[in-house]
Amino acid sequence: MAASKYKQAGVDIEAGTTLIDVIKPFAKATSRPGADGSLGGFGGLFDLKEAGYNDPILVSSCDGVGTKLRVALTVDKHDTVGIDLVAMCVNDLVVQGAEPLFLLDYVATGRLDIAIVREIIAGVAQGCKLAGCTLMGGETAEMPGMYSMDDYDIAGFAVGVVERDQLITGETIKPGDVILGIASDGIHSNGYSLVRKIIKDVDAEYDAPAPFMLDVPLGEALLAPTKIYAKQLLPLIKEKKLKGLAHITGGGVTDNIPRVLPNTCAASIDLETWQLPPVFQWLSNAGEIDALEMLKTFNCGVGMAAIVDPSDAKEVCKHLQKTGERVFEIGNIVPRTENGKDISYENLKSWGA
């Protein structure tokens, strides 16, 4: 039987249908109250009443994984970028106080490779389970001519919900409040254009041992997935122990903490309160990047920042440590002076500045 005209143009409808059957079990494994995790319809349904909410506000976010995907393509490892995708979406829900409910994914590629997309979706499903949300559906687009044959891009759209009286707005933050840094699991999903440039400039090899983690290849070490903070933080949100949360993504520590502050407040960060992790030490040295540039580009070991009342700081730290998180008291909220900076750093010399 002759190939269809559409297949000759580079789009294999049969492969797309096969892929849906392959990934259905991953979606089903993410079922939760309010949704059954099934795929195949034109749209997904979520029942907020079944999920147990009384006065809900929906919160939405969308994101991608950026040029970290180029590392995944280079080393042919695709099972962690799906976790990254979920993390980048749901962590942005949690900072508003929202419980992640469901996620939709989008995979675009030049040629549909079922094995690779299966790896990606397996990672998305794993991320959804870590976040407590359901993989409700998505889209896979085969687009020869838009992407080279082996390239792909992924994006996610997530929806969460928060009871109106638990919404985190940052409006109660005041001078004297404590800033807690919750540890990251590495670079997460930002700054990879610079990371890849440094690797090229120093002639590092992705399959060679990582200079900062000698028992792991560099490429694999760089693919450590973004940490998902949802389940750790939700109990504190429900107890109203958190005045503000900042997901440390693009723009690093410098740009993200001020996003949650009132106009009357600024953040004072003490760099001696935590140690710059080895991967960031290597990037700083290999790329000759100063401390301020590092702080504006990377999370530098702090994946999420929480702002709490001083009277709650000890309890919040204790709770997070019980969930396995490493927590540092990295600074305080101070009054913002007219024409003053919204974030300042103490002890820059401790990072070699």
If you compute it from the alpha carbons, what radius of gyration comes out, rounded to the nearest whole angstrom? Answer: 21 Å
What's the architecture of the largest domain, going by CATH? Alpha-Beta Complex
CATH superfamily of the largest domain: PurM-like C-terminal domain
Q: DSSP strand (E) fraction?
A: 15-25%
The N- and C-terminal alpha carbons lie at a distance of: 68 Å
User: What best-fitting shape do the alpha-carbon axes yield?
Assistant: globular
Strand order of the largest sheet: 8-10-5-11-9-12
Q: Uncertain spans, ≥5 residues at pLDDT below 50?
A: none
Helix content: 25-40%
- What's the level 1 CATH class of the largest domain? Alpha Beta
* Total number of helices: 12
Q: Give me the strand/helix succession.
A: HHEHHEHEEEHEEHHEHEHHEHEE
Task: Tally the beta strands.
Answer: 12
What is the CATH fold-level name of the largest domain?
A: Phosphoribosyl-aminoimidazole Synthetase, Chain A, domain 2
- What does the main sheet amount to? 6 strands, mixed
What is the residue-mean pLDDT, rounded to a whole number? 90
User: What is the total number of structural domains?
Assistant: 2
| Structural class determined from secondary elements | alpha+beta
